[in-house]
Amino acid sequence: MNYYIHNLDPIAFSLFGMPFPWYWLAYFFGYFWVLWSLKFLSRRGDIKLSEEVIHSYIFFGFFALVLSGKAFYILFYNLGHYLENPLDILAIWKGGMSFHGALLGGAAWTLYYSRKKAISFWKLTDPLCMVLPLTLFFGRLANFVNGELAGRVTEIPWAVVFNKFYDSHPRHPSQIYEALLEGLLLFIITMTLKKKLKTEAVMSIVFLTGYGCARFFVEFYRMPDPQIGYILNYFSIGQVYCVLMIVLAGLIYKFKKN
To answer: Is the pLDDT score of 258 beyond 90?
Structure first.
């Protein structure tokens, strides 16, 4: 069978000799999408956040997400590589980010910001969790363009050969699976439940549960990180973190219900 051979250019365009990777564009889109969406919800009266609060929360939160996502990946996924290649820490266009690390950093920043501004933690996270999945959709597409985070070997008709970072075996395009499930599908779900914004913590619980379940499922088709391998010979480290996300969502639900 003739499989699609991945040969996409990770560079979207160059401006004055400076390359702009698709990975950067995904970050830029995510930032401005979230900023515009929260301002739109504020103007409509769906959320009670001033534009000044939205701007400062998202601006500094963006850096908190990027730095914590990178730091988590370095420390818990591939410390040996970065000790040998410290300059790769700055090469964010090469990937090497952890969603779960970014989530922790974002939560820490939100906790700090909510206390500083005397705003409810959930008042910030709920609208953010409603619009965030669309940024994940484009982020996973950027992963596919980069040819990273490929799936396991398979013979399905839509398999892809990622011979840039892997071998010549056809593999599941797991980046696309993640884009569709934890990105597009989760976005549709959160937008469908938009009225739940009035109920504190519901949207955050939906996001944690939805992402955790989607990522846990797709990880069965995705290659584990080679430097870590499998946990108990079956589960990836990403699945372990996803289980913790789902458990956290359950604890939040129980706490808010009581």
So the answer is: no
- Contact residues for 2 (Cβ-Cβ < 8 A; gap 6+): none
Q: Side by side, which strands form the sheet with 170-171?
A: 4-5, 160-161, 170-171
Q: Give the predicted TM-score (pTM) of the model.
A: 0.92
Q: Using an 8 Å Cβ cutoff, are 170 and 160 in contact?
A: yes
- What are the boundaries of each domain within the chain? 4-257
pLDDT-derived band of residue 257, with 50, 70 and 90 as boundaries?
Answer: confident
Of 129, 112, 130, which is closest to residue 121 (Cα–Cα)? 112
Residues 155, 2 contacting (CB under 8 angstroms): no
Q: What is the pLDDT of residue 95?
A: 66
**Residue 74 backbone dihedrals phi, psi, to 5 degrees:** -60, -50
Q: Give the model's pLDDT for residue 151.
A: 95
| DSSP single-letter state for residue 19 | E
Q: Can you say whether residue 205 is alpha, beta or left, with left for phi > 0 and alpha for psi between -120 and 50 degrees?
A: alpha
Confidence at 226, pLDDT banded by 50, 70, 90: confident
- Please tell me the distance from the alpha carbon of residue 226 to that of residue 164, in angstroms, as a whole number: 16
Per-position b or e across 66-92, b if 16+ CB within 10 A of its CB: bebbbbbbbeebbeeebeeeeeeeeeb
Of 47-56, 120-129, 228-237, 243-252, minimum mean pLDDT range: 228-237
In angstroms, the CA 29 to CA 27 distance is: 5
Query: Nearest CA to 213 among 181, 176, 237?
Result: 181
CB 239 within 8 Å of CB 91? no
